[in-house]
Amino acid sequence: MTSTETRSRPRWLYLMAAIVAIWMTAPPLVVIPMSFASERTLTFPPSGYSLRWYQEFFENPVWIDALKSSLLIGVLVMVISVVIGTLGAFAVVRGRFRGRGVLEMVGIAPLVVPIVVLGIGVYAMFLRWGLIGTVPGFVAAHCVLAVPYVMITVGSALRVVDGQLERAARVLGARPHRVFLRVTLPLIAPGMLAGGLFAFVTSFDEVVVSLFIVSPGLRTLPVEMYSSVTRDINPTIAAASTLILLVSTVLILVSTKFLFSDSANGRSKR
Amino acid sequence: MTVAVDTDLALELRGVSKQYPGTDTAAVSGVDLQIRRGEFVTFLGPSGSGKTTTLNMIAGFISPTAGEIVLHGRNIADLPPHQRNLGMVFQNYALFPHMSVWDNVAFPLVERKYPKDQIRERVRAALEMVNLTGFEKRRPRELSGGQQQRVALTRALVFDPPILLMDEPLSALDKKLRQRLQLEIKRVHREVGITFLFVTHDQEEAMALSDRVVVFDQGRIEQVGTPDELYRRPATRFVAEFLGDSNLIEGKLVERDGATALATPECQIPLPDWPGGREAPSGDEHCVMFRPEDVKVLPADDEGAACRGTVRDVVYLGSEQRVIVTTETGREVTVRTGGETTGIPGVGGTVGLRFSASNAWLIPTGG
Amino acid sequence: MLKLAQQTTRRLRGIHLAIPLLVLLVAFFAIPVLELVRRSFLDPDGALTLQSYGDFLGTPAYRTILFRTFFVAVVCTVTCLLFAYPYAYLMTLAGPRLRRALLVLVLLPFWTSLMVRTYAWLVLLQDTGPIKAVLAAIGLEQVHLIRNTTGVVIGMAQILLPFMVLPLYNNLQKIERSDLLAAQSMGATPVRAFWRVYFPQSLPGLFAGSVLVFILALGFYITPVILGSPQNSMMSQLIVRQVTERLDWASGGAMAVVLAVLTLVFVGLMSRVVNVQQAFGGTVDKK
Question: Among A223, B336, C178, C287, whose CB has the most other CB atoms within 10 angstroms?
């Protein structure tokens, strides 16, 4: 037992933590009941319950098309970002060239620059390039925002990989590409998985840049929600939100299983 | 293909050097060494002495700037590591954390494209030999330190390499475990009978394990010899000081009563049975080494004392004790005594010192 | 010659792996942003001018918006700090299970979609909403929580809190708690011991988190649009209005450049003290 002096936790600390807990959990806790409201209302809690907004969501082609577009774009962004970001992370961590540090900074620049700056710039260029309202346009713009996460997660996984393990594989008879396949890749796989999930979520959740490059023919789910909130708020957005919550919860559980399970991580970090 | 090969030799280094670009001093310079088949040889030296660099050149992780590395008659200096066919055990073992014990041990066989049934048979037999049957599916992290070492050794030996390299495999462990694993390494060496090349900075470990020890300092080999040779007949001051405790006493060699003696301002150390055959020119400054067990503490008024001093410290070490005595001129002499404490005064007391001449060793000049 | 060529190839080793990354960033990040910069220096006839910058800084209404953006960012930073410090401190004291729960809680905003959250705050903070009802019950009818800066800060700070908690927690967990006991054994009161021994050691994390939150707050768009009002708009809203409503690319571009440059100045300031990559990385790793 540690002495009480070192472990004393004043009550007000718990109070603060409780406030934070309510603050953090309030949004999802509000959205779920709202999605089951029986009337077209913004009042919380709703006066009656029904499934009509889910019906609306699944029967209205506007919402369903937006959901399909978002999923398609998200998956493409995930795959492309993982490839580009993993290669970039190798260049930054393992490369031997001048300007690696600069490359590292450039890699996370899209996270730092105000998002509307990117949105308007992309808008200007996409008008010229004819990429407005196209899947490739969305994927490219979202990749810019998603790749930095992959670089960070894969980069830190790569830094942890013990160079000695790769040397052991080499001296035990593995050719260079076999060393990569059998030792390096499995060890950075959790980082790639995490990066891929971030990439997907980043794309699936992206509003600002998307607002500039949508067309009536191609709209993503967050854009549809945005127009719903700004135009005619109806609880379909709550149904959509609940469905998104469901998807992201599943993603967390999957990633937690992979990221925190010791078998994937090789060695426990703590 | 091979010309005039000494079939007894496992590994030969000829003029092996490594100079990193942009540095003035070579990390390793002009290392010549011959290792016989079946020998247990240890590279010993402080960090930065070039022992690990040399090992890494043998393994193929570093390419030498000059020299040849000849393994069983073939120069392997230009081969990549995976073509050298060497077994290697790393510091902390470098077991693949994402693979089971079985997959770790099978790794070199799979990479060598052994047939599946042969892999199965070999891995099974190898694990059985080191008592790891039943642990096949475990991850390395789920094993004890001793079990991990056994997996690492098995993995490095399962493909019958001609030589096993070991890069400080025990340095991260506590003393008890280290001693136990040393015994196990020795046992494995006896059983497989191949050449072992071990690297360590721990001189006790080197002495305990090796047939021969190669002492490195500043990128060069200082001395090669059996542990006993190194301890009793160090070639240089560095070796004398690096291996075990030593009292290095400088003085003039003088003739006294028809016998040789070492004269310092405060001591006259008779060396009657000075080991013959060695030229010890009188009159010059010389450095003579006495190991602590070759010095005796006497009562201050003892006739046989070569000099007198004050006890500065007594360190109790269980079966023995170490007494540190400061002579009149401030020289420190370390004495190792047996269990008997009688006759040794406490700290501050005056004692006489007698040096046993039979094990005295003249450090060659320039060393 | 040969040696020089060898040296060059050696220096370039691995850079080819970054080619896809560089192509992506140049085409869809650098070129768009530079295009914005270019347009900011052009007048309607296509001649070079600094007119847009002059107009921006010379118009009081625009200056007000710039100052408001900074003000909101500072308020968000302070709010996050006030909640994050005790929270992170409790995390260092907690047992493994409570610590994990606290970590998951604070990471929730990362996993709840921005639109989901913003919509939820709209429901909660509106004048007919539940929080307003509670306030009215205790006699605070006059307080409005939405269409003003209060709502914007509540929404923004919620999103930003993890960016404060994680760098702070990373820092605090490294501080030896025995330092506090040592200080007390030498006669300091617990409070003095905290301020003189513990708090100074937490400054790097505090600084990293604060600058991170501040930088991110400067660029918010969706939250102020939905929870704020046009009368209380921030820089991002102004920039979008200039471009999409007035079609004034030069003016919008100039504002965007000013906002981006100010942000980068703070990033530069931060990078002198902490590793920016790590500050982001620390956040992402824990997500």
Answer: A223
Hey, which chains touch B, using 3+ CB pairs under 8 Å?
A
User: Shortest CA distance to B128 belongs to which of B94, B97, B102?
Assistant: B102
- Neighboring chains of A (3 or more beta-carbon pairs < 8 A): B, C
Measured between CB atoms, does B355 come within 8 Å of chain A? Answer: no
Residues B122 and B172 in one domain: yes
* Of B310, B338, B308, nearest in space to B324 by CA: B310
Contact assignment for A266 to B98 by CB distance below 8 Å: yes
**Of residues A27, A91, A149, nearest to C116 (C-beta):** A27
The string of DSSP letters for A122-185 reads: HHHHHHHHT-TT-HHHHHHHHHHHHHHHHHHHHHHHHHHS-HHHHHHHHHTT--HHHHIIIIIH
The CATH superfamily of C49-286 is MetI-like (1.10.3720.10)
Tell me the CATH number at B254. 2.40.50.140
Best CA proximity match to B310, nearest among B342, B266, B274: B266
CB B200 within 8 A of CB B168: yes
Contacts of A180 in chain B (CB under 8 A): none
| Residue numbers in B near A168 (CB within 8 A) | 88, 90, 94, 96
Q: Give helix then strand counts, H and E, for chain B.
A: 8, 20
Class for domain A12-265, per CATH?
A: mainly alpha
Q: Is the Cβ pair A168, B96 closer than 8 Å?
A: yes
* pLDDT in 10s for each residue of chain C, 287 residues: 455 555 555 555 778 889 999 999 999 999 999 999 999 998 878 788 888 898 888 899 999 999 999 999 999 999 999 999 999 999 998 888 888 889 888 888 777 888 888 888 988 888 888 888 888 888 877 788 888 888 999 999 998 999 999 989 989 988 888 888 888 888 888 888 888 889 999 998 898 899 989 999 999 999 999 999 888 899 999 999 999 898 889 999 999 999 999 998 988 887 777 666 666 655 554 43
Could you report the predicted ipTM of this complex, rounded to two decimals? 0.87
CA dist B66 → B13, B26, C161 (Å): 11, 11, 59
Q: How many CA atoms lie within 13 A of C261 on its CB side?
A: 10
Measured between CA atoms, the residue of chain A closest to residue C182 is A6
